[in-house]
Amino acid sequence: MKRIRYAELTALIGQRQPACGSTTVIALDGPSGSGKTRLADGLAEVTGGDVLHLDDLYPGWQGLEATPPMVRRVLAVVAAMALFSAVPAAAQDSLCKRLGGGDAISTVVKSFLTKMRKDDPDKLGRFWLFRGSGGVAREEQLIVDFVQSATGCDRLYDGRDMRSTHKGMGLSSADWDRTVGLLRATLDEYKVPAELQTEVIDLVGTTRSAIVECEESTFGCP
Questions:
Q1: Does domain 82-211 correspond to CATH entry 2.170.130.30?
Q2: Cα separation of 144 and 148, whole Å?
Q3: Which of the four pLDDT bands, split at 50, 70 and 90, describes residue 22?
């Protein structure tokens, strides 16, 4: 078996698209004593990454079934923190605070989502044609939580990552552009200053690669 040096391994990792916001997650598996910890520590040293040991999360061998939801919550926080890091470090206040706080963000997000749901049925409105009110309400709260967390509010998002959430929905670049257009219209409606609008749009833009599944000028992927 060919031995791969850390430099070669990190180069291979760098070719992969981030799947946790803008963060690349590396999962190591193997039997006890196989060298997982040593490899993880070595990768962390050369990449500047952090190491999370799953045995620090699950409640013993009898609690392995509880591990997946725990890991999802941890990765959701990592993704949100990665999004928040896109906010200029020089800013003294979080984007959340500069947007007026969690309640203001909630109001704007809900208005934006209403526009999407009421969009033409052959455009963005198609995603809500046969949705129940309970599921829509749950979805809306998760999106509010995500945006509040990503902008630095005191809110924990415990939903799935963006790639898993949108997988198979067939979102095209046309869908994305229309979504951003409705977001801009909502920000204009609430008179959000231009510089803050730019920050919000840039922040949302970091999720594009995880959401858009085809670069088509039509709505939906073929």
A1: no
A2: 6
A3: low
